[in-house]
Specification:
Bound molecules: nicotinamide-adenine-dinucleotide
Oligomer: single chain
GO cellular component, one term: cytoplasm
Pfam families: GFO_IDH_MocA (PF01408)
Largest sheet: 8 strands, mixed
CATH topology of the largest domain: Rossmann fold
GO molecular function, one term: oxidoreductase activity
Number of domains: 2
Helix content: 25-40%
CATH architecture of the largest domain: 3-Layer(aba) Sandwich
CATH class of the largest domain: Alpha Beta
Protein name: NAD(P)-binding protein
């Protein structure tokens, strides 16, 4: 890949996932120096990317963001250039600055979107319609109709559009998928994902208003389940239930419609055998206990005709104890922030990094005419086309909660629709 043209990339969103800088300072989560910008700075060092730009809404944040990146990335790893072009410029505040930034780009360049859930669709569509390749964070869109529109648009403009489902690149998850393929008909899947109540402070701006905890966290394991079940079963019906009362009470006082814990109960139909049906339960919570030694609780269980699989991604058999903060379980398989023996960034094998690198490699390969965007749909990668059922289930879950009814999922011609 070394002689392929370097790629120019625009990062949309300047928050926790992109830079590790949140409105209230450096993130206190497991992403203190972010994922996207750090990975792209390293890929620039390794000659895969070239010009980098970043767009947010509030241009006044950039001096602090630059200081944070200088100190914690350039000041820690050798040979790291943390420069980037900013939008909006001159400290302006502009929610449409992404249009200005995108209008200055050339077809074939790339946009990586980590912005609030409700903004994913308009920003991604704007970029795709201008011939730009897009990596979009989860949940790709909140509505199935929007997801279908992005599939169509990416096809029409012949661009790569991936959803950043990084768990697919966790060696445990991808191995588990291969093992699941040997276990016959699907029977039962149960996933739990949680974050501590303190996240209700971090997410105050949008929690319960703009999105919910199912979209935010269950999107991960719904995607993994859909990916495992490709060619095995399809979802047919979703019923949702929510626990409430903690987020809307002291000291969090979230808006009245905020749920604490959302469970989606999903019926799956085997694609090969009419009599085999499966059940999946996807639960997500942002009211888990504080001080549990983990940032995200995450485990799942898969049972099929000939065996089962258990994964606990929160406890990797690696824990630390500090006198002041107690025990914590850490996961360097996701982002490894400790430098190499030569003093360089050393996290190239982390699945948070790999997920972004795979997108950059695919785009450079397409730009060099070595591959077509549609090739990646056949490779079980999280392309926009391959992730449509994840959005179908999440959207059906939201409708089920709002309208207090089961929601059907079915295929009509080439389209997945909700009933
Ligand atoms: N933080 C994580 O651990 C994590 C992990 C995976 C995925 N995500 C996803 O990332 C997205 C949010 O990213 P975050 O966690 O960095 O959030 P954040 O709240 O820290 O940052 C959001 C950023 O989006 C920007 N933004 C908002 N509207 C915009 C617009 N119209 N144009 C350009 N920028 C805009 C804001 O300026 C801000 O910089 C969510 O969809 C979330 O599901 C986050």
């Amino acid at each position: 890949m070394a002689d392929l043209k370097k790629l120019n990339v625009l990062m949309c969103g300047t928050g926790e996932y992109t830079t590790g800088w949140t409105g209230s300072g450096a993130s206190t989560s497991d992403k203190k120096i972010g994922v996207v910008a750090l990975t792209l700075f390293d890929l620039r060092r390794l000659d895969k990317v070239d010009h980098l730009a970043m767009v947010g809404v509030n241009g006044k944040k950039f001096p602090e963001i630059r200081q944070h990146l200088e100190k914690n990335i350039a000041g820690v790893y050798k040979d790291m250039d943390v420069s980037f072009e900013e939008f909006p410029k001159n400290g302006l505040v502009d929610a449409d600055a992404y249009k200005v930034a995108i209008n200055q780009m050339s077809a074939g360049e790339a946009v990586i979107i980590f912005t609030p859930d409700s903004t994913h669709f308009p920003i991604a569509l704007y970029a795709i319609e201008r011939g730009l390749h897009v990596l979009l964070t989860k949940p790709a869109t909140q509505l199935l109709a929007h997801h279908n529109t992005l599939i169509e648009a990416a096809k029409k403009h012949n661009v790569v559009c991936f959803v950043e489902h990084h768990k697919r690149f966790d060696p445990v998850y991808s191995d588990a998928r291969a093992k699941a393929a040997t276990l016959g008909e699907f029977n039962f899947f149960n996933a739990w994902m949680s974050q501590p109540k303190s996240q209700l402070e971090t997410f105050r701006a949008w929690a319960g208003k703009d999105s919910d905890i199912s979209y935010y966290l269950s999107s991960h394991h719904i995607d993994i389940c859909c990916w495992i079940l490709e060619g095995i079963a399809v979802p047919t019906r979703v019923v949702a239930s929510a626990a409430t009362g903690i987020a809307t009470s002291e000291p969090y006082n979230c808006v009245p419609q905020t749920e604490d814990t959302i469970t989606l109960l999903v019926d799956w139909q085997s694609v090969k055998s009419q009599k085999h049906k499966g059940t999946a339960v996807y639960t997500a919570s942002w009211t888990a206990p504080l001080k549990a030694g983990i940032h995200s609780g995450q485990h799942w269980y898969y049972m099929a005709e000939k065996g089962d699989i258990n994964v606990d991604q929160a406890h990797r058999g690696y824990d630390l104890t500090y006198d002041d903060s107690g025990k914590s379980w850490v996961n360097p398989f996701y982002m490894k922030y400790s430098p190499s023996e030569s003093g360089h960034f050393d996290g190239q094998r982390g699945y948070g990094y790999i997920s972004i690198e795979k997108f950059i490699d695919a785009v450079r390969s397409v730009n060099a005419n070595l591959t077509q965007p549609s090739d990646y749909d056949k490779q079980a990668l999280p392309t926009i086309a391959n992730t449509v059922l994840t959005t179908a289930i999440l959207n059906a879950g939201r409708i089920s909660l709002d309208e207090k009814r089961p929601v059907g999922i079915k295929r009509e011609g080439d389209l997945w629709i909700l009933e």
